[in-house]
Design a protein that fits this description.
By secondary structure, the chain is an alpha/beta fold. The chain has two domains: 8-82 and 119-223, Rossmann fold; 85-116, no CATH class. The chain contains nine helices and eight strands. A six-stranded parallel β-sheet has the order 5-2-1-6-7-8, with helices on both faces. The protein has a two-stranded antiparallel sheet with strand order 3-4. The longest helix is centred in the last third of the chain and has 15 residues, at 196-210.
Length: 228
């Protein structure tokens, strides 16, 4: 897993601004969902075209977390990425034309073809878990997925975010969640990026502007905290 660190100067800045580090003192399991982003072969498998090696190290923490959340009635939602393709083009041409090229482009297109996406091997799925497909970094940008509608229909106002990459799809989803008036908690030990520096930069951004940052254990502690 990552060596997670929020720098002291960021903590000082947060304290001067709002007088406390964490956003939330308690979480309600009746209105909270876990959203696990992009834990699929394209990003998790060894040698995959968009491999994030640390993603394999967060399989165990995510499994531990989901085992604790399901008995509390907290929905577990697996968000996977897929891009529709036709005639050698996709529904994300800006990405495929400018972010990846040549052999990497072809391999990525193939791996993200609809119908190929599965939750990464080793992750434990429950019978009541939900799976949602997205086609943009953020699962909550307009038109990207059905995630917002599902959350609203379930009466969810708080999202715990796990998965990969911390600084791309997880952060994009977290930012949009807060902009849509969801409470956001980024789970520091259940997210993975390509480096500690990228991972920590996102956590520092989130805790200052977009939501809370906790470990999975800390989030469970607040979800099971007795009412005063």
């Amino acid at each position: 897993m990552h060596n997670t660190l929020i720098r002291p100067e960021i903590i000082d800045r947060v304290m001067k601004r709002r007088g406390r580090v964490h956003w939330f003192d308690a979480l309600d399991p009746n209105t909270t969902a876990l959203v696990v982003i992009d834990m699929q072969d394209t990003f998790c498998a060894e040698g995959a075209p968009a491999e994030v090696p640390v993603s394999r190290a967060i399989v165990a923490p995510i499994n531990k977390l989901t085992r604790q959340l399901r008995p509390l009635g907290v929905p577990v939602i697996w968000v996977l990425h897929a891009n529709v393709q036709h005639g050698g083009k996709s529904d994300a041409e800006i990405f495929f034309d400018y972010v990846v090229a040549d052999e990497v482009r072809a391999r990525t297109l193939e791996s993200l073809a609809p119908g190929k996406q599965r939750v990464y091997a080793g992750l434990e799925q429950g019978n009541d878990d939900l799976t949602v497909m997205k086609n943009r970094y953020s699962a909550l940008i307009s038109g990207a997925s059905q995630l917002e509608r599902i959350l609203r229909n379930l009466g969810i106002d708080t999202v715990l975010i796990a998965g990969t990459k911390t600084n791309v799809c997880c952060e994009s989803t977290a930012r949009d969640a807060m902009m849509l008036d969801f409470k956001v908690v980024m789970l520091s030990d259940c997210c993975a990026a390509l480096s500690d520096e990228e991972h920590n930069a996102t956590l520092e951004t989130i805790i200052q502007q977009f939501g809370d940052v906790m470990t999975g254990d800390e989030a469970v502690g607040l979800l099971t905290k007795p009412s005063p």
